[in-house]
Amino acid sequence: MSLTDAQAASLSAETVVVAAGRPPRDRDAPVNPPLVLSSTYYGTGPLGDGDRGYGRYSNPTWDPFEEALGQLEGAELPGLLYASGLAAVSSALSLVPARGVLVMPSHSYAGSLVMATEMAEKGFLELRTVDIADTGAVLEQLAPAGGTPANMLWLESPTNPMLGIADFRTLTAAAHEAGAIVVTDNTFSTPLVQQPLALGSDVVLHSVTKYLSGHSDVVLGALVTSDAGLRAALLHHRTIHGGIAGPFEAWLALRGLRTLALRIERSQASAAVLAERLSGHRHISGVRFPGLVTDPGHARAASQMKGFGSVLCIEVAPAAGLSGADAADRLVQGLDLWLPATSLGGVESLIERRRRHTAEPDSVPENLVRLSVGIENVEDLWADLEQALKALDS
Ligand SMILES: *Cc1c(COP(=O)(O)O)cnc(C)c1O
């Protein structure tokens, strides 16, 4: 390990993203970890703890990223990489006991909700969905008077795409009181903006596809925990269910992670500027961004996040005979610089009307457009939005 946990804890995250997960400083050793492509490893004795054995059990290219992510989340153990964010969701949900109770935000990532719903339909678990920003409603679902207490609380904050903010400290304490473990999907924030373990979560989940890798060129997921028992169960699930990361993707993810702090700094600052300017615009009927002082989640977000992220949502007003949804589509099609595409967290700015996805719940307004702010110059991003908004006049 190039950077011990104690060193990582004493350094700022901006430094850890650069310094973590490097090879030992041996003479002529590479300063970057090599990409190891091998499905098997030499060995003749009995396979035991720590043996690499076979490519589904472990790969040296996973280790530096897992080490770095564990240190960034402030965990006592390295993270676990997965083939995708949803492979990590599948592993995390395996921690719910048979016919146990899962409490999940009604605006969780759509794929996570679909997976939990299908598990519930098969009778594997009981699913209770709830508005995660409504603390009283969550407490009621965690430990209903006279009902079965929950086994797992799923947290996502800010939620996707409504950007609702959960009260972490209250909810994690209540979940533990009820005997539930807490899993937090921290994809939108990254450990640089929000540290769920410090706020009481037991497991942190990432779609590494997004900010951590940061260049929209890999699909990967990860889990992080400080609990050795939970980590062993998750590792076993990954090995047996097979949702492992490709070594090249893992290598690219670490390369992307090196610039995370710079990317977040720029994109958060730009998102704040754009949210302010869009708020006053005649073609926009609403802006959701926890960084706006008028946002309902602002005070809560400020108390538990180091910044407000770089995803914002706008609602497009009806214009020139178009419904709000049609005006939103026209806006997205009228942009030159912003890329009309799903996903988020890359260097390039992405924009999409969310209800174009048929799986998106009805509670997401038809005219809601999600913006993932990248690292381009903010005035260029604004100029492009301004010209496409102006085109709605005609
Ligand atoms: C994208 C995403 C996921 C799923 O990750 P994949 O890498 O696409 O499998 C899960 N949660 C959130 C918040 C996401 O944005």
UniProtKB/TrEMBL annotation:
Cofactors, names only: pyridoxal 5'-phosphate
Keywords: Aminotransferase, Pyridoxal phosphate, Transferase
GO cellular component: cytoplasm
Domain of life assignment: Bacteria
Gene Ontology biological process: cysteine biosynthetic process via cystathionine; transsulfuration
EC number: 4.4.1.2
UniProt-listed Pfam families: Cys_Met_Meta_PP
InterPro entries referenced in this protein's UniProt entry, alphabetically: Cys/Met-Metab_PyrdxlP-dep_enz, PyrdxlP-dep_Trfase, PyrdxlP-dep_Trfase_major, PyrdxlP-dep_Trfase_small
Record field: catalytic activity: L-methionine + H2O = methanethiol + 2-oxobutanoate + NH4(+); L-homocysteine + H2O = 2-oxobutanoate + hydrogen sulfide + NH4(+) + H(+)
Modified residues (N6-(pyridoxal phosphate)lysine): 210
MF annotations from Gene Ontology: cystathionine gamma-lyase activity; homocysteine desulfhydrase activity; methionine gamma-lyase activity; pyridoxal phosphate binding; transaminase activity
Enzyme class, broadest EC rank: lyase
Family indicated by similarity: Belongs to the trans-sulfuration enzymes family.
Name of the molecule in the record: homocysteine desulfhydrase
Organism: Arthrobacter oryzae
